[in-house]
Q: What sequence folds into this?
């Protein structure tokens, strides 16, 4: 194999690699920030991100609603809580628990909030995670919610990719870097232990050990009163897991499909098969009493059965009910299931019919039947509804309108991929559309792209006359697990053919032209952008490629890459490398090709998708003399930005790049 001259750029914090990145940043910033337009765009985006009129989304934990909030005064954010009665009001009285800005200043660390796990059902303490610069790796500290102080004698862990969760007030399950051999090839915990307060970490007792080639192992304690139990999960690959219940001190493996989504709720075992399982089809939702299953019964009740147009997007539980989100041609429907009434299904509430998008964003399965639903559309700001099963829901919060969408048209179309599959996509066209079009897609890991109200896209693109398009490619979950599995591994090419088909359809319909069509994607969507550059360069006027995978020869050796081999394939296997090599963007770059301008963005602190992918790709493009720009944010992790100011900068650079590279001209087709 030919030696890669740019391997040195894989040394994340190496002097040579960082010097290279700084030089590229300086070049891009000098070009893209010189115009007054960039300054105005960045200010408008930051204003949208920092506005105090945003909805403070919450998690329900007992008597309190918890929220993490960033604004201009608190760029790193504050973690706070309030009561439902206060939250219903226009100006809730928030109790600030942790001020991340103050903590970072006091400790001289660039802390980024990583989340908090409240101990249930006592709701008295939590495990707080903080990262340096937004990485996946975090430090852990125990926090007392009554005194609002970190516990000096609490559970404390140094930076690593931890898996930690409460068992009781004195004990946690922990997977972390215990030393050589304790992590998988993907960099996640291979060993789960029980760690008791006040004891050395070295004395924690081992509960389970996975294999070096696994993705990770984890353990969770279910604290539901009357249904307390422990579940150990060995994740063999990204989509396959073995699950064990701890019964009388022994591990009992649940005889379920490895690729199924499995959930325990009170007395019920819920199974969502991702492939056909006997008489039960791919994408269905099944229920059986756990006690019956453990006694040998296998007669499940079918709670949901998919069809050619509908799939189960998600399900969640209140204390006594299940709530389902069903997509029909990418349009949501919320359903309520009543276990005590023969699992009868009905619409959750009339208020949630015919919506652009509806997401169940909160339940508390321990304490009651309350739920929170977020409703929005591409041009309709979010409204947060609170409901209790059996009563009419009420709107409790509304987001501000961040851009003028008057006269905008939203239309769903279908493009035909080369194998005849119909690919849905949605076009959002403002009244002042000038033909410039930004097309985005993802197509991987069974992730669905549904309508979303974005102040970034609205202010930075739609309000400036740009048309926005979202493609629902195979590889996603819009039509259930089969929509995803049909584009894995050797069939990955279907994702790229789908996206190219949508691009061609946009031009054929007169919505845009090739010179006016820009595309954008991140992570797996960044890989999509790289393939579009190398395989279909003639279809696009400009490409934005963010935190991308690009070197599919080495992706499994870089950071978390080994965990994605179930999605893409194993480069060490000659048969699988053959299909990977066919599209791997880094290996398919050509000096004599004609490529559209491309802007590649990543983060030094991205410890999920290695920044070396982006660095090497850009270095090779520069070597070949192609039109490429690069920006590497030092912070931000896989999200590419650690705070609102960094997000505003990143997106202002993107919009400035698109404005400079895409052709402009009124397009009359509507």
A:
């Amino acid at each position: 194999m030919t030696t890669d001259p740019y391997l040195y750029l894989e040394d994340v914090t190496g002097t040579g690699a960082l010097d290279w990145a700084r030089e590229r940043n300086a070049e891009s910033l000098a070009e893209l920030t010189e115009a007054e337009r960039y300054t105005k765009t960045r200010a408008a985006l930051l204003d949208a991100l920092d506005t105090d009129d945003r909805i403070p989304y919450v998690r329900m934990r007992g008597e309190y609603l918890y929220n993490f909030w960033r604004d201009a005064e608190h760029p790193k954010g504050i973690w706070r809580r309030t009561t439902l009665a206060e939250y219903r009001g226009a100006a809730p009285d928030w109790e600030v628990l942790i001020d991340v800005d103050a903590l970072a200043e006091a400790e001289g660390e660039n802390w980024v909030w990583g989340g908090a796990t409240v101990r249930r059902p006592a709701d008295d303490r939590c495990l707080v995670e903080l990262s340096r610069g937004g990485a996946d790796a975090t430090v852990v500290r125990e926090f007392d919610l009554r005194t609002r102080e970190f516990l000096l004698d609490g559970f404390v862990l140094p930076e690593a990719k931890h898996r930690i969760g409460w068992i009781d007030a004195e004990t946690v399950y922990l997977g972390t870097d215990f030393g050589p051999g304790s992590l998988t090839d993907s960099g996640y915990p291979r060993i789960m232990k029980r760690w008791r307060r006040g004891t050395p970490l070295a004395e924690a007792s081992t509960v389970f050990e996975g294999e070096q080639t696994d993705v990770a192992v984890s353990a969770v304690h279910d604290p539901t009163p009357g249904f307390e139990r422990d579940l150990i999960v060995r994740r063999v690959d990204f989509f396959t897991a073995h699950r064990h219940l701890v019964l009388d001190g022994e591990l009992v493996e649940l005889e379920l499909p490895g690729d199924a989504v499995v959930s325990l709720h009170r007395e019920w075992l819920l199974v969502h098969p991702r492939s056909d399982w006997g008489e039960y089809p791919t994408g269905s939702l099944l229920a059986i009493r756990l006690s019956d299953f453990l006694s040998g019964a296998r007669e499940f009740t079918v709670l949901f059965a998919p069809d050619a147009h509908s799939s189960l997007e998600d399900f969640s539980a209140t204390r006594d009910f299940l709530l389902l989100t069903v997509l029909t041609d990418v349009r949501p429907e919320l359903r309520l299931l009543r276990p005590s009434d023969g699992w009868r299904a009905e619409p959750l509430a009339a208020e949630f019919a015919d919506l652009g998008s509806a997401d169940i964003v909160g339940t508390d399965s321990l304490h009651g039947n309350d739920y929170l639903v977020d409703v929005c559309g591409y041009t309709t700001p979010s409204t947060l509804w609170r409901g209790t099963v059996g009563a009419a829901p009420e709107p409790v919060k509304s987001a501000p309108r961040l851009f003028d969408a008057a006269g905008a048209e939203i239309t769903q179309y279908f493009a035909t991929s080369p194998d005849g599959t119909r690919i849905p996509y949605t076009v959002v066209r403002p009244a002042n559309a000038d033909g410039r079009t930004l097309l985005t897609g993802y197509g991987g890991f069974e992730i669905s792209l549904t309508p979303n109200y974005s102040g970034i896209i609205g202010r930075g693109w739609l309000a400036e006359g740009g048309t926005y398009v979202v493609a629902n490619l195979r590889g996603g979950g819009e039509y259930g697990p089969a929509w995803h599995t049909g584009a894995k591994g050797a069939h990955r090419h279907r994702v790229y053919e789908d996206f190219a088909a949508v691009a061609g359809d946009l031009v054929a319909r007169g919505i845009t032209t090739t010179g006016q069509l820009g595309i954008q994607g991140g992570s797996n969507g960044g890989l999509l952008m790289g393939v579009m550059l190398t395989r279909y360069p003639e279809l696009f006027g400009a490409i934005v490629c963010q935190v991308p995978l690009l070197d599919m020869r080495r992706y499994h050796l870089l950071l978390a890459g080994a965990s994605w081999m179930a999605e893409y394939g194993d480069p060490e296997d000659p048969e699988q490398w053959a299909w990977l090599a066919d599209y791997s963007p880094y290996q398919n770059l050509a000096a004599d090709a004609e490529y559209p301008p491309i802007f590649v963005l990543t983060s030094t602190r991205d410890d999920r998708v290695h920044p070396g992918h982006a660095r090497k790709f850009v270095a090779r493009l520069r070597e070949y003399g192609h039109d490429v720009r690069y920006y590497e944010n030092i912070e931000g992790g896989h999200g590419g930005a650690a705070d609102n100011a960094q997000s505003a900068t990143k997106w202002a650079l993107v919009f400035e790049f698109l404005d400079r590279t895409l052709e402009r001209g009124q397009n009359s087709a509507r």
Q: What stands out?
A: The CA atoms of residues 604 and 611 lie 6 Å apart.
